[in-house]
Amino acid sequence: MSNVISYKFERSAEEAAYWHAKQMSGEMTTDERAAFAQWLEGSEANRFAFEHIEDALTLADTAAQTVLSEKFEDELHLEAQKTTAWKAPALAASMAFAVLTLSVTLFFNYSSHPQSQIYATAVGEIRSVSLNDGSTINMNTATTLAVEYSRSERIISFEEGEAIFNVERNEAKPFIVELPVVEIIVTGTTFNVLASKNDTEIFVVAGTVQVKPISSHMRTLHKGDSISIDNNGSAGSIAPFDPLDVLAWTTGKLRFTETPLHEVVDELNRYFDKKILLRDASLSMLPVTGEFDATNQSAAINAITLIFDLNTEIENGAFILSKKDE
């Protein structure tokens, strides 16, 4: 098993334990229920890990009940032989206490993952979150975050989505963003993270950011720097970026400069349930420069078809873009 696969499996197991404990607590918010459903459907590893915990708890509960039942019967038989009937209720109470102790032990074993506050956005939704320390997070479309604050550190974790973090400075309590392929460590700064199935991109708007990919050495990024981490945890080169393009989403806009059409389509598809597809692969590298409204899919499609003289059709619930001569 590779380090990446092992890491993801262990992470799924930890998250499954957290979600199971959260369900047992009976105190899940609407956001948390939505986040749990999204997490469960996010990967086979997540589903397997959660089912494994449920099976293990069921097996443990059955075994415990059997052992306790047998012990209860043996003790009752012994007490009957001693003809001390008054002890039976006390023994029953002790057995009930043992069952309760076992349940509590199992609960805390499976809820050892620090309790998190879950925040989520739906497709097309943008949300701002204010944290207890004064830091703020602006979350883009289809993003789920888990926030964990302890005495020594501030931890944010998520797998896919986008957010810009404006971190309140605290030298004694680092702010850590954990993703499957990289860990980001800061004490006070502003940076944007875009995580997809293919890679994770980090853009530093202000201050300094420490980036620790799982398959590369630590990198230090400063204001205006960006870096991409592939899905194997390998880091690319540090490069400059245009904040007007990268941060346009915070105002409900999407800006592109000489961006290949397939990347523009991928970005637009993050904001709408009904997807856009390119019928012809030759269209994928057409350069797009311009600004689109992230809430108006029809306007974006009309602009693209007008610029490149394309046809638009609807097939199987998706918009298909193709050349007019096809």
Automatic annotation (TrEMBL):
GO molecular function annotations of the record: sigma factor antagonist activity
UniProt domain FecR protein: residue ranges: 119-210
FecR N-terminal domain boundaries: 14-55
Leader sequence residues: none
UniProt cross-references to InterPro entries, sorted A to Z: FecR, FecR_C, FecR_N, Ferrdict_sens_TM
Domain Protein FecR C-terminal: 253-319
Entries under Gene3D superfamilies matching the protein: 2.60.120.1440, 3.55.50.30
Name of the protein described by the UniProt record: Putative anti-sigma factor
